Amino acid sequence: MEKEKIIQVDKLTKTFGDFTAVKSITFDVYKGEIFGFLGANGAGKTTAMKMLIGISNPTSGKAIVAGLDVATQADLVKKSIGYMSQKFSLYDDLTIKENITFFGGIYGLSRKQIKEKTAQLITELEMQNVANNLVSSLPLGWKQKLSFSAALLHEPKIVFLDEPTGGVDPITRRQFWEMIYTQAYKGTTIFVTTHYMDEAEYCDRVSIMVEGVIEALDTPKNLKKQFNVDSMNDVFLKLARNVE
After folding, report:
1. What's the CA gap between 38 and 142, in Å, rounded?
2. Which of the 8 DSSP states describes residue 141?
3. % of the chain exceeding 90 in pLDDT
4. Cα 92–96–100 angle (5° rounding)?
5. pLDDT-derived band of residue 168, with 50, 70 and 90 as boundaries?
6. Which of 13, 80, 158, 225 could form a disulfide with 189 if both were Cys (CB 3.0 to 4.6 A apart)?
7. Does the UniProt entry include the keyword Transmembrane helix (predicted)?
8. What is this structure's pTM?
9. Within 10 Å of residue 160's Cβ, how many Cβ atoms?
10. Superfamily for 34-44+77-243?
11. SS3 call for 200
């Protein structure tokens, strides 16, 4: 049976004046897949992601996300996806419970749904004793888990995670990836950017951008075989050297 394409990108391009940040990239992402979108700073991956989540218009090319055209249906795209940025998107001056309620409202949930989801989320995250504490009082790892859960409140088909584990310790990173696996198992597509090459090993497939172009795209196992190396970090280094 053919896998369902949840993201379809065809010759997507973004230019800023004379500079082309994303150069005619083409790829598909499948339902329930953990798709790693990698690249060094300045490679164009953040610019590409901004187009896919509907906050930046493509200069040319096409992208369909959850059945919606990012160029003509950007507002619908934003409502249909989950998004977690590197800064976790939470409001430090609101309590945990208030943050969940706020995001539930943004995603268009009813009051009843928000109440039910809030109770469910606080229980799942084992935050019953701190639910009325300000988010600013939480350790970084807890903020990260809460932010990921908030991005899933409206049960989106796709969640975009932009450098979600930056600055957290290895144990918390591993726990976070367990949450990602659980969500992917339920059928949610995870589109994740990361600069931790060991995390690329956790993805079903990995795309590597270099200077605005996708230079490699395959499973971590196949990429290591293709470049005849033992780790994804070595794949990345070899690619960077080849382009230079």
Report:
1. 25
2. H
3. 61
4. 105
5. confident
6. 158
7. no
8. 0.91
9. 25
10. P-loop containing nucleotide triphosphate hydrolases (3.40.50.300)
11. helix
Two tokens, residue 40: 């060094």
Residue pair 39/209 in contact (Cβ under 8 Å)? The answer is yes
Nearest to 243 by CA among 210, 206, 197: 210
Q: Are 174 and 201 in contact (CB under 8 A)?
A: no
Whether the CA torsion 185, 202, 163, 208 is positive or negative: it is: negative
Q: CB of 30 within 8 A of CB of 6?
A: yes
Q: Which amino acid is at 7?
A: I
Amino acid making up residue 190: I
* pLDDT at residue number 158: 96
Could you tell me the residue ranges of all domains in the chain?
A: 34-44+77-243
Q: Measured in whole angstroms, how far is the alpha carbon of residue 12 from the centre of its chain? A: 18
Report whether 223 contacts 206 (CB < 8 A): yes
